[in-house]
Design a protein that fits this description.
This protein is mainly alpha-helical and 616 residues long. Helix content is 59%, strand content 6%.
Length: 616
């Protein structure tokens, strides 16, 4: 059986309606191609080094790696307005997409099938993205995608070109041959072309087994000769008959288009004017109108439409290289003005008025702003009421304010705790120890959650060293703050002289704390100041107890337990004195601690401490 290649491709598109539910591979391919299209457009519009483009490129590589790991390759057939795989439409060009369509770009450059194979690296993917829009070498912008791919010769990327299909068709009187019963859902176009080449090398003979060849004949008037002669005069074009179903489909498309909203029509008209208008005065008015459109879209929260508008304005230089310098400056002012204070205030008003609003595309809009928008973005973060909206602004500030962190640091003195906590999270994302000092100034901040975040920030930005700022937090009114600070100080990674512990120990409420908390404080003192605290613990064991004898005995026993774990000569001397001078219960605790202190540890050293679970 033989069929024209164009007809074969159209048959694929027609078969889509007859197919059942999509399999997981098709779902994965659609997701990858949608992200590929978005990534290619962002790279073309903003450049590969833009944070938005880099974000999309990284997401694309992750999705593609997962797909190739699961299915080993990703192959699709290229048509003018669609990409197909296994008779499914896995990518459809947007209406009036024109040259921005991924399918049209590949088709126009002569690619009829493209395959990505397992082992594709992020560098290979970056090369392919650059190849789509000619961003590799400004001196080679005239090269098409096919030329660039052939020059690179990547094993992870293969293509079938229109030229290859045409050569295969010429060898069969203008037809591309398929084996009987075979369809493109069973084989790739590359496999079918290779099969045709092998058939050509074997002489193209057939035995009536369905390969589409007719029996040879030397008689001029035989049906075979007549058929061959008739084929020579055929144009090779395929006619199309429009069925009732296809007419109904066209009617539905027209109806959908007629219901298109007014905004889309306005933007289409303005785009047409931007592309074709030559009058300088009208272009000036048009750019003013584009600024008004941006303001309107911000007020209505149409982030994805706004992203499209900004993308279009970015491409104006490429579409209209003939516009004047005055208009170029006017255009730059519109784009750079996206982060103006009043516009960001408009975003704030909309989000606070619509806490459940759809925020798709908002992150991209914020990332397209310049670093001079950081002050207004900080104000936006402070005034937003929804945590989900705040998280989007935090992400934008993490990128935009990285080189100018002063505004974020100054904001730590704000009296709004949620805002301060968000600023701390931004500083933590930068992973720089220089931000520990301004964060430590918040140890007396009124809000307990902020103080808890301060402890977390110290643990991440300064995992060892001075623990002086942590000591006052062990006397915090909030229990969770106290235990978070104690946990760090008990780790043995921080030092804190005894003089900084003394105010805590002399506090009237220290004796009333739970015994577990007092034990934790003593253990933190042991690892942070060591022998400096030995005289204090000795005084607890040998001092007289005229009042509160039970509590004083309890804390003296804790002191003995701690000295036993310290195990230094000064600690042993203090225990020996306590064993002689202390009260009966204290003397017993000192003797037990001395026995533990005198036991060698695994390395043969004296002073192996008992576990916290051992009785005193």
């Amino acid at each position: 059986m033989s069929t024209n290649i164009t007809s074969a491709q159209e048959m694929l598109a027609a078969a889509v309606a007859a197919r059942g539910a999509e399999d997981p591979e098709i779902v994965s391919i659609k997701r990858v191609l949608k992200l590929l299209d978005k990534t290619a457009k962002s790279n073309r519009t903003y450049g590969a080094t833009n944070p938005v483009a880099q974000k999309f490129s990284h997401q694309l590589f992750e999705e593609l790696t997962v797909h190739l790991t699961t299915y080993s390759k990703l192959t699709f057939l290229v048509q003018r307005t669609a990409l197909l795989c296994k008779e499914y439409v896995v990518y459809q060009a947007e209406q009036d997409g024109g040259g921005e369509s991924l399918a049209f770009k590949l088709y126009a450059d002569g690619i009829r099938e493209l395959s990505l194979h397992q082992g594709l690296t992020e560098e290979d993917l970056g090369f392919f993205l650059d190849s789509l829009w000619g961003g590799l070498d400004p001196g080679k912008d005239d090269d098409d995608i096919v030329t660039r791919i052939w020059e690179r010769n990547l094993s992870s990327l293969s293509i079938v070109t229109a030229e290859e299909v045409a050569k295969a068709s010429v060898g069969n009187e203008g037809y591309f041959r398929l084996d009987g019963g075979m369809s493109l859902s069973d084989s790739t176009l590359r496999e079918l072309l290779d099969r045709e080449r092998r058939r050509g090398r074997d002489g193209g003979s057939g035995t009536g087994d369905g390969d589409g060849a007719e029996p040879a004949s030397s008689t001029t008037g035989t049906p075979s000769a007549v058929s061959t002669a008739r084929n020579r005069f055929q144009s090779g074009l395929v006619g199309y008959e429009v069925t009732e179903d296809e007419l109904a489909s066209l009617a539905r498309e027209i109806e959908i288009e007629s219901r298109q909203d007014a905004l889309s029509y306005i933007l289409d008209a303005m785009t047409a004017i931007l592309v074709s208008e030559t009058s300088p005065a009208l272009l000036t008015k048009l750019f003013v109108l584009w600024g008004n459109v941006i303001d309107s879209l911000l007020r209505e929260g149409k982030w994805t439409v706004l992203e499209h508008v900004v993308s279009l304005l970015h491409e104006t230089d490429a579409v209209r290289p003939d516009i004047s310098e005055e208009h170029k400056q006017q255009l730059a002012s519109i784009i750079d003005g996206l982060g103006r204070t009043e516009r960001i205030k408009t975003i704030e008003t909309y989000l606070n008025r619509n806490p459940d609003a759809n925020v798709e595309g908002l992150s991209t809009i914020l990332l397209l702003m310049k670093p001079d928008a950081v002050p207004a973005l900080c104000a936006l973060l402070a005034n937003l009421s929804s945590p989900a909206h705040q998280a989007i602004v935090v992400e934008a500030l993490t990128l935009l304010a990285k080189d100018k962190p002063d505004l974020v640091v100054r904001g730590l003195m704000d009296r709004r705790p949620v805002y301060v906590r968000n600023l701390i999270s931004i500083l933590l994302n930068w992973h720089s120890p220089k931000f520990v000092e301004p964060i430590e100034k918040l140890t007396r901040y009124p809000d307990a959650q902020v103080r808890r975040d301060v402890v977390r920030a110290i643990s991440r930005l300064r995992p060892n060293g001075s623990g002086i700022k942590l000591v006052p937090l062990t006397n915090d009114q909030d229990e969770s703050v106290r235990f978070a600070a104690l946990k760090l100080l008990m780790s043995g990674q921080y030092t804190a002289p005894f003089a900084h512990w003394s105010p805590l120990l002399s506090d009237d409420g220290f004796m009333d704390r739970p015994i577990t908390e007092r034990r934790g404080i003593f253990q933190a003192m042991r690892v942070s100041c060591g022998d400096e605290a030995a005289p204090y613990w000795q005084g607890l064991m040998t001092g007289w107890a005229w009042t509160n004898r039970r509590k004083k005995d309890e804390i003296a026993i804790l002191a003995a337990e701690t000295l036993g774990k310290l195990g230094t000569p000064a600690a042993i001397a203090a225990l020996e004195r306590g064993a002689k001078k202390g009260r009966a219960a204290v003397r017993q605790a000192c003797r037990v601690a001395l026995m533990h202190a005198s036991k060698p540890d695994r390395d043969g050293r004296p002073g192996s401490p008992p576990t916290d679970g051992e009785p005193s």
